[in-house]
Every structure is written in structure tokens, then in C-alpha cells.
Amino acid sequence: MNAQPAVLEDQQQRILECIRDFIQERGYPPTVRDIARELGISSTSVVDYHLKRLEQARWIERDPRSSRGIRLTAAGARGLGLGEIVSVPLLGDIAAGEPIPVPSSDFSLLGVEETIELTRSIVGDPQDLYALRVRGNSMIDAMVHDGDIVIMRPAEEVANGEMAAVWLRDREEATLKRVYWEGGRVRLQPANPTMEPIYIDDPRQVQIQGKVVMVIRRVR
Asked: N or C: which end of the chain has fewer CB within 10 A?
């Protein structure tokens, strides 16, 4: 049987709700300074004090090695009506512009830098999901901007017009585009009227790595 978190003081409730809202909007936890700024609290020591109380009350967990090491516990997430919190690994960057060279031989093999926190009610089955940070603005008409996070599901095939992470074998480059199979060639179409599509004459050079299932907007 899961123990229920203790009843909160008003300030702790505000901080907890701030953590919840921050994660929902950005996909990663706030720092102590983020919380202080969001709530207009002048002292980070005050925020830290209440975070310790929330941790003691089992609403949150904290990783002292990370400034963004705040995590809602399962009981805390339920108490806020979020359901289960799942972590999706952020594997690196993907170009939404001209393809960019990627270290090693495959962007999906990059070491995990951090994770994106989402609720199961939003993502459904989190099995095999991964996240990439977008570089470039070739997909702005698809509401994907530089600095946004795309949540990907592994896929080896996509239908015409689906947005996918594409590995170009001969160039050893990756890009994020809408994919169109046009007979003997592949068109990688940006969603930006100022940019031209990329045509790949040899479809064997195109390897689909995954398709976009969700976009997390960077607050501007």
C-alpha cells in the first residue's frame, strides 16, 4: 500500500504546482532559481527550505548532483492529478535545416545527456520513446522551432508526409524533415517556404530512424 504525502503548507503547494507546470510546459524540471523567479520569491534559500520539506513529505525526490534533479514522486504526481511520470531519454540534437554531421556513426547512439519528464497520459506507452533537441528552423510551419524538443518513436518506415528523423548514410548526416517517396527518389521536405527540399536519388541512402509523436515547445 502506497503512503500518501503529508498535507502541504500554502507556499509548498505553490512550489509543487510550479514544478508540475514547469515540467508540463518544458518537459524537464525547474532549478531552484527557476522556481524563485516563477513565484516571485526573492530568496533561493526559502525555496530550498520548502523543497527539503516537500522531499521529507515524499512529494518530490532530489538528485543533489544535478541542478535540475527535482522529480515528482509517484504519490506526488497522483496528488497533483498527473498520473504516472515517465522519463524519456534526451539523446542529442537533430537538424531542422541542412543536414548536420553527427559524431560517431549514428545520432541515436549518442550518450544520454538528460531526460524529459512527461506524464503517461500524454505519451501513452513510453516504451522505446526518445527525445531530440531541434537545431534550425526548417520545420517552423509544422510548429517546430530551433531549441524545441521532439519526442520520437523508433520506426523504419513512415507514410508520405510524416515527419521523421532521417539518417543519410552516404553523408553520415541526420536531418528532421517530412518524407516523401517519389518513385526512384526520396524528397525530404522542409516546412519553411524559404527553404528548398532535399532530393535523394538513391533511396538506399535514406534510413528512417523514427517518427515524431510529440513536440515540446521551448518557451521564448
From this structure: N
